[in-house]
Each structure stands twice: as C-alpha cells, then as structure tokens.
Fold each of these.
Amino acid sequence: MIESLKKYAVLQEVIDRCNSVVLEILRKSTIREAAIALESFENGGKRLRPALLILTSQVPDCKPIDDIESPLLDLAGAVELIHLATLFHDDVIDEVDIRRRSVSARVKYGSHASVLAGDFALAEALHLVERSRLKHTMPEFLRTIRVLVRGESLETLHKFNFDLNEATYYEIISEKSASLFALSCKVGALSYRSEYADMLGHFGWNLGMAFQMIDDLDDMMAHPNQTLDCDLQNGYISLPVIKVLSNLEDGHKDRLVKIIEEGDFSPANEVYIVSLFNETGTINQCTKGIDKHLDNAAQTLHRFQPGEARDLLFCIIEDLKNYTNNQTQNFVRFAASG
C-alpha cells in the first residue's frame, strides 16, 4: 500500500531503529506473552505510525530525518506497541485466523494468551512513554488509549446494524483508527515544537481517516482486492455498504442483507455485491471521500517549509492516492469478471 516506506533508504533506516527499540523491550521479558508478542511483531507490518511520528517531529524545523534522539525512538516504539496490542485484541473479538499472512495468535496460542499478549504490549508501550521523559506526552497517550477503547466498543455495538449511518461510521473509524495516527503526529511535534502539535495532529487524523477507509475497502470482502479478510462476514458495516443500502430498492436491499446475515460470500455473491457498488457509484463516492482527507492532509503540509521529512510525507500521501485508484479499478474488473 505504501511504497515510500520501502523505497527510501533513509526512512527504512529510521524504521529499523524504531524496530530495535521494540525488539529490545519484547526480548527483555521472560513471560510467554512477551514471546508471543515478539513472534507477531517479527511477522512484519508497515510500521507506518512510528514512521509518521519521526517524520512529523522533523517537519517544523526541516531537520534531517537521520537526526533522531533516543527519547523520540521510545515514543515511536510505543505507538507501534499500542497498534500491536489492538491487533491481538481484534483477533479475539473478530475470531481472526490469519494475521499478517501467518496463523493468528488466537488460533496458535488461544484467546486467553492473545488477550494477555495485547495487555503486555500495551503496558510496555506506556513504559516506553515514561522512559522517554518527554513532557506532555503521557497524557496524550492515555487519552488516545481511552478513545481507542471507546471506538472499538462502538464498532462492536453496531455489528450487523443495517441502519448504521455515515455519521456513526465516521465516529467509529475516527476513534478506533485515526486517533492513533493523530497521536503519532501530535507527539512527534510535541517533542520539539509544541506550537505545531495540534496542526500536525490534525494532519495525522486526516491521514488516518483515509487509511482506515482504504483498509475498509480492502477488507470488505475477500476476493476483489485479494485480501484474506472479510469484514462483512463479521458483520462490520463499512461506508460502501452504508451508501449502497441507502440507494437500493427493496428487492436488492433485502437480498444484500440476507447475503450478509447468512455469511454467503461465494464468488458469485461477491460479484453481485460489487456490481451493486459500481451501478450506484458507491465506490467512486467513497474514493472521493478518501481523496478529500488526503487533500486536507496535504494542505497542512503545505504550511511548512520544504524539507526531507515533509517531502517523504507527501510521498506517503501520493502512495495512498495511487493505491485507492488501483482499488477502484480492481472493483470494476472484478464486477466485469462475473
């Protein structure tokens, strides 16, 4: 999804340093959950959130991104551990079998171990925040963890809710996903130039909203974008489904609801669903919403002087735009395949 994280050697070097902080923490403990967390962490991941924290910390003063001090790396490791904790908990809530193309911890070690591994990762994240000794960061982390929990709770309350509206959907993804992006960017700015913290936090929020909307398109069904997830099977009603349900006549609406309720996501039914999206213009409407958030994020960056970190953040935005365009084409091709 984001080629910039692999394309630029200087950024990969910074991510490697963030990884080292997390690996140090996970390898210190001898409890089983630490080993489970280590195994999951080493299975991969984009490491986007720690990369954003590092980049936004350097934007205000146009600092080179290889000029990173240890306290900042601790914060970057903390946001990645919080993200890891949410994945362990999501695996249990959603009964996920595959995580990062490997068997999930829930399947391999059981739900109890997965939950405890998530708790362990969360506790170690807060330890890293404390270790950084950077002012004003702990309250931001604690506030965001509360928001994350509220967002996850709201999402589970609305499983299989076919009357879910767009406002509630946006509230869910703002709290369960975009809030951690906002935290990453805000505390990055807080570490050096606090007067830009809210501005860059808003940049992160817009980026996180777009990222989650893209992810929802990817994971909505198994086949169109060749993912291993199917959120609809778990009853999660994302923006495309909300939009299409509001545009369908009773016959098609009833059929779509029945498919989702029965979990009958055969290739033929997925082609039918995607055809409904294309005929009603739903996918295009969603991609316009994604582009709007990405454009808002870009507008924030334009307020800063050009520099290495700012340029790389623009590259991340461009990668997400390109990926969204490819998604749209995939849906069109998939519908035509039927």
Amino acid sequence: MRGETIALGVAVFWTLSALFFEHAGKRLGSVNLNLIRLVCAFLMIGLTLLLFSGNFLPEGADKATWWWMSLSGLVGFVMGDYFLFASYNLIQARFSQLIMTLAPPFAAVFGFLLLGEKMSWMALAGMLLTLTGISISILRKQNGTNTHKLRMQLPVKGVLFALVGALGQGVGIVLSKQGMLAYEKVYQPANALYIPLAATQMRTITGMVLFALIILIKGDTKRFVGSLKDKKAVRSAVTGSVFGPYIGVTLSLMAVQHANTAVASTIMATVPILILLPEYFFLKRRITWEQVVGAVLSVGGVALFFL
C-alpha cells in the first residue's frame, strides 16, 4: 500500500498546485507565471540533483539526449503549459484539469506514430470513455428548445486552450521518453531516480530560457519585474511550484517505484475528481452532477489505458 498511498498524495499535491496556479495566473499572466514556476522548479530540482550526484546540473547527457529533452521542453512546457495556464483564466482549473485527461490518449496516439508503440482496443475504449466524460461535463442541452441540440457551457477559446495544453503535455511525454532512452544509452547513474529528474531539469532549462526570450522579445521585461511586486500572486506561484513540478513529480516517480504502474498512474489521474471538493467547499463554486459523472468517466477512461 505504500506506493498507492504516495500516488494519492501526488494527486492531492497536483490538485493544490492547479488551484494555486489558477490564482497566480489571474494576477500574473500565463507567461510570467510560467517563468516564475520554471525558475522555482529549476532551483529545487537542481538542489536534489546536487544531493544525488554532487552536481547541480544534469551530467553525462549527450547531444541526442539534450535535443530530445529540449524539444520535449518546447512542446510540453512552453506550448502545453502556456495554454494550460491561460485556460485556467477562461474556464477555471477544474475544467482545464478535466480536459487534461486527454493527455494520455494524445500520448498514446503520438507514441504509435513516432515510436511505433502499439495501441490496444482497451486504449481506444479508454479514449472514447474519456471523451464521453468530458462531453458530459462541458456540453448542455439548449434551454427552451424541443430539439436535442447541445451547446458548450464554457468559452470555446478556453476549451481550445486546454486542448492544446493536453496535446502539448501528451506529445511532450512521448518526446521525453525518447530522450530518456537516449540518456540511458550513454549514462548509467547509481540512483534510478537520477535520469527522470535530470531529464525533467533539461526540460525545465529549455522552458525557462524560452519563456525569458518571449518576455524579452515582447518588451515585457518591466511588466515581469513589476509582477514580482505582487506578493500574494508570487507566493501562490511558488507554492504551486513546490506542490507540482517539485514534490509532485518526485513523489510520482516514487509511487511508480513502489506500486503497480497501472494502479499508481490511475490514482494520480484523479485530480479532476479531487479538485471538485475544494472548488465546492472552499471556493463556493457550484458543482453539478454532470461535472461529477464526467470527471469520474474521464478518469475511468485514463485507467483503461494502463490495463
């Protein structure tokens, strides 16, 4: 039960991370939030690597590893997380996290296209179930009509942003896997956790540099520096970074180590369900039965991917 307990803790931490990032994103903006978040992750992961190997930065990686991990950082952290955090401001974290359950299906499709990985009928069924759950949550029958037409109850732009975020994270995972396979060929560390953490650090470095360049090119440096004066928003960003990119990612690796991968992955994917509790009790937001059923079905679809 140790691994399963850790996996549940990961889901709780990721839920808290999403809520803190939603709060910070509304005050800082998606680009500023991402840069602050990645700087925090870079420092925290670097200190962990320092404990493992005596080096703050990843060691032993060749050009192929850096290429794949940098590409993963571009797709997953820059594109994926930019649009994910931007969607928080438009449709709230609970709906964004629900749509993010499409990341595993996207990863499966691109794993099939890029790596030649097989897609089982169970995975296809999981994809259909996840899409059904999301549809139940975000679609509603039109009022005042005798037809069965459905309308989207959320801003289309927010849904599209969350979809791009899920696509970015799904493809980013596939590229990360390719990068870690390349890494393992040239470097064999004593600690099994080292390569995933070092790979995450490479992705973080890429995302941090690219978001900094975006701010410079747009001429928003003064605005970024000014945003750091918003102490409440910065505290939320730092707290979200501790819960998500650092503790969440590290514990997720431990969960997979000590539990069945399928069970651990399914438990960690329960964020769309768990996030409904603080949304209702603390933020006083209305939760409908369609949203609860949709979240459960979406997570059930994710579970089928690991059977």
Amino acid sequence: MANSENPLRERIARELRERRENGLFRTLEQPRGISLFSNDYLGLASDPRLREETIRAIRESGRVGSGGSRLLGGNSEDWERAEAEFAAFAGTEAAIYFSSGYAANLGLLAAVARPGDVVFSDSLNHASLIDGIRLSGVRKIIYPHGDFVRLEAELERHGDERGAKFIVTETLFSMEGDFAPVGDLASLARRYGAELIVDEAHAVGVFGPEGRGLAAAAAVENEALAVVHTCGKALGSAGAFVCSNRVLKEYLVNRARTFVFSTAAPPYLAHQIRAAVRLARGMDAERARLAELARVLREGLRGEGFDVGAGASQIVPLFAGTNERALSWAESLQEEGFAVRAIRPPTVPEGTARLRFSLTAALTRDQIEHLIAACVNARRRASTGSACSAASGG
C-alpha cells in the first residue's frame, strides 16, 4: 500500500518532512575529525589497560551471555561482586546495576514515586528523569533551572501535604555544563522532609575524591535516597548503578520494572566495570588536565565575545540561539576538522540552539586553541552567508 493511502505512514513521512524543513532532522551519520561530542572524558573507552582486562574477562568467563533476567537465571557472583565494589566506590551501603542510565532513572523513579507524592524537578533535567517522573504518575513541580529560591518556596507551599516529596536533579547538567549545589539541595531536603535523588551521569569519574562524584564531594552520598552513577561515560563501559541503602536496593529488585524485566548484562561486563573503577580512582592527572583544557576553552571563547554559559565543567556549550546559526557553525567547524554537532530543540529549549563541546583528557592545548580560532571563523562565515546549514545533530 502506498504511503498516500495509509494514514499512519503518511503521518510519519509528513513529520519527517517537517523536521527537515525546520532544521530539526537528525541522522546517525558521524562527523569526522577531532571528537568534541564524546562522553569518554578520561579516555577509558580506548585505554589499552581496560581493553586487556575486558579481553581477559571474556576468555575466562564461562559464558558471554547471561541467559535471562537477574531474577530468572541471569544473576551471577560477578554482578554481585561488581555491585558491592561499586557501592564502596560510591560510598553507599548498596548498589544495583541497570542496563543503562536511562533504565536506571526510569526504573527508580517509577518505582519509588506514586500518585499523591510530589516531585520537584529542575527544568533542565535529562529526559530519563523527566520520563521516569511522568511514568510514576506523581504530581510534578518544575522549578526554573538553578532557581533554588523558587524551589524552597515550592517546598514550603507543599509542606503540609501527606505524600512523599522528592527533589530530583542532575549534579552536572549535560547541556549546560553547570553544577547543582548538591550540599544545598540536601539541606533543603532535610528542612522540608523531602528525599533527594541525584544523577551523577556526567560527574562520576571527573569530579569528587577519586572521581566518586559531586554527592561524595559534598559528603551527602548516604543522605540522598539514591545516587545514580552511569558507567558509559567517564568509566568507558556501559550501564548504570543506583546507589542507596540496602532496603531501597531490595525494593528495586522487587519493583523496578526496567530491572525485573530486562535480560541481565553478560558477566564479563561486570569485570570491565570493576576494572574501569579501579583505573578511574587513580586518574587525578587526567582529571586535572581535563579541567585545565575546559578553563582554556571557556576563557578563550568568552574573550572572543561568545556566550558559553556559567558552567565550569568539561561540558562547554557555545550558544548560537537559532537553529540556522547553530547548524552553520557546526558545518564550518566540521570543515576545519572538528567532529561537532548542533544541539537544537527539543533537546534544548527554543531559542537556545548551541554547539556542545564535550572535552576529553585526550585533547591537547593546541587543539583547543585551534578550536577557539575556528569558532571565530565560523561566526564570521555565518555573518557573511558563506557557510551552508546541512550539519545535523541533537
């Protein structure tokens, strides 16, 4: 049947056409050049030490697949050992592994929050947190990004309600590159009888003592209800741990649908993650180099009159405003040898299209200086209309 005779297929085709026309069409094509969109912040994903540990684990493992969910034959001592070691790394009583950060946030929030409860969520929280909140059916209060005066006012306004209250936030915001003051949020949670849930996806491995994250840096890892640590970014692996007390872990084993109904990850991955954590603990030199590269880039771009936000992390947004300008800048940078993509709505709010520079410790200062010059050139070319707008991204 032709698309024109099938309402569903025509709707799909129409929406894709509209995305192309509005500069919102995405592809899986990977730009070539110096990567500025990798989340492999410490370089562990290509570290030969981690590769050798993973190869050894595969060779020594009795199987390369789990065969079922953790509750139906897929559990192993490998994963129990990995969870125990990761809990020690995170500074919590227990940890439970999920197949992805998305699955962890979705499963956690849908399990613990119920209709009648209230969730207070930062307006720029990741989609996985937003979707977990939606799935739970809880009432949500979205406070403006980083507006903790507004958050406190909302907590006070809902102080007499009977349901549970949750403050939910990323610790390092993935599109802004700025931080949540985790210690202050923990204080607000204490004051108003709320539970704190934090997502350390972009902070683990990079910040905190031995790369343990911002909750550990603020010494609130045991005060929070749950701290979610992703393994697929600075730890160069895959999946995520929800770190908490033992009671919450037992609850999630019973109630988190993304855990209960997911096939367990293969045992060798547990060994890879354990090795990644051991390596990350000792990578203070890489963390220091990454911080210095981010400082040089931010200061250089600000000096050229660009808006890079107020962050101080390895994620550096370059705000373009319009989709067309972001696409043009991305195209120009790709031509100068940088693998970068434009980030556009709905990934970010309307009017805040940007390039997102995700730095890694493998970059050099010379490359950062070249990037600054390339950004100046991209802006000049866009102002004279000499750059096209075909680059696709988020």
Amino acid sequence: MPELEKEFPTLEGITKIVFDFEKVEYISSAGLRFVLKCKKSVEDTKVTNCSPEVFEIFSVTGFSEMMTVEKALRKISVDGCEKIGEGFYGIIYRIDPETIVKVYKIPDALEMIKRETDLARKAFVMGVPTAIPFDIVKVGDPYGAVFELLNAESIVKLIDSEEALDDFAKKCATILREMHNTKVKEGELPSRKKETIEELKACRKFFAQEKFDKLLALLESIPETDTLLHSDFHVKNIMAQNNELLLIDMESLSVGHPIFEFASMYASYEAFSCVDKQNTDKFFGMPLEVTTKLFNKIFRYYYNDKTEEELSDMERKLSVISFLQVLVLRSKYAELAYGAEKEEIEYCVKYLTEMSGELDTLAFG
C-alpha cells in the first residue's frame, strides 16, 4: 500500500478513481484507510473486480454502504456448448439443461448488459413471460448475461409447417395483447416515440427540408400512450419452453403506441430485405416469403376486428417507421456503405420521401 500511496502524492484535479482489484487477494486496514482517503477527496471513487474474500472485508467494514464495491465477475466457458441463437448484439449458448448465456459480440458491453438485465427484471415483475436473468459473467474477453431457461428451444427450429406457423402467430398475437394491456408508470421506461423522433433528426441530411418537416409531423401525429412495448419482437428473441413462449433481449423495452411494435416487426421480417431478398434467410434462417406470411398472420390475429382495407392502410403507416429504422441503422455507417447497404439507404430515402407526400397522419388502431 505505501507504493500505491506514492502514486497518489496529491488527489488535486482528479475527478474519478476506479480501483481494479482483480489481482488483489487481501486488503489490510492500511489499504482500507487509503481507499477511504480517496473516497473522501474524490466522490466518484469505486472498487471493482473484488474476489469474494476481499468483497467480504469491504462488506463487514461498511465500505460497501459508503461507496460502490463490485465483485469480480464469474468466468465461464462456452466450449462445446450448443449455440441456440444469434442476434445483432450477441450469441446465445446453452450451458446446462437449466441455463443459457448470451455472449455479447461488442467490447465494453457491461453497461449494456446491466441495462438489459435490469429491464428484463422489470418486464418479469410486470408479468411479461420472459427469461429470468440472474448473473453477469465473463466468457473469455467478452461479457455475457446468464438466464434461467429450462428446456427451452429456438422457435425457428419449431416452425416446420404451415400449421406450426399459424399456431405460433396466434400465440404471438396473444402475448402482444397481454403486453400492450400493461400500463407503464410515467418515466419508468423510455418513450419509443421520442426515440424515433431523435432517430429521424439524426437522418436529417438525407431529406429536403419540406420532406423532413412532413416526416416529423407524421411521427408527431402518433398518440403518446403508456403501453408496454418489447420493440424488438421477432423469432430470434422468442424461445419455446414447455409449449409456452418466453421473450428474451429486453434491451429495447419501451413505452408507446403499438404502431411502434408492429413497425419493428415489419422492419425485421420485411423492410430489411428491401434490397437483399436473402436477408431473412441469413438472419433468421427463414425465407422472406415465410417471414412476410408470419408478420401478416400476427398482425391480422392481433387486429382481428379490422377489415382488409383498414389493415392495408395501417400497414402503409407503420412501414414509414420500419424503413426509418432501416435507414437509421445503415446511415450509422453511411460513409463506409457500399453495395447492398448503399442501395438500402437510397431505397429507404426514396420510400420515405414518397410516403411523406401520400400520408397525412400515422395515427391508427
């Protein structure tokens, strides 16, 4: 500890201190006093990667009540484990009959994982049929989230006939109705409408001022509601357990009008294939004609009191949000876009420009 104190002759000008205790096996009273000195001088001081023994010392001495003290993450391996799913951000493996782990592809995903597991707990408390997160781990260098998921199977593997597709669509419509009947307290979850408006503003450069203003007005026309939304509802985020469906990937959980839910689904099942017709095959392992049929079935089972004319009008409206989602994702890499990605950007801009002249509102339902 004297050596460490020499590294901090003064704390003047320091605004944040993070002690990484990954290699610390024991901390003495002198070490505790030094950490306390740092905490008193720099409010934003925390200790991470504590072994169970060191964490216990911080706990019994009361340090964990005064400051952030984090245990070291458990380390696991997925070598030889069955890969049961893959999404944009992570790969899901079964690590034993009772649990799965979602291994994140992106580095420094810890804050994202903490947010997702927190949202998953909120969803569970609200009554959403979701896998229960109970641990954050290290899987080599990447981070992972461990979920309890007994005997669960991938939906893609189970949709092997027209009858299975129809049954799945009915169950999805039922879950969506249950979710959308759940009311969210103000401020508890982000507003999907506000997020979508910010996404449009990020794509401002692609549109003439008149068209941008019209698209903004269309988004503003959607009523703000307190409805619970999953916002990323597709087959890769749904597992089957004992003939019941469970939702995973809660990182997009939000609040808003159901149009945003169906727009997200339409984007996944159709809009992202606007140029590359093999996209759903690559992402879901399902051809475009099947994902299109699946969306249509879920949409119609959900809105079973609407006429085909009404449903067609509603689909045109939600497609505006869907193609904006495609544009948002592709435009993040606009400078590097080439081939299909560049064509997708051009397609979306053209589609949104045309629709802005055809629609006066996006309100429906």
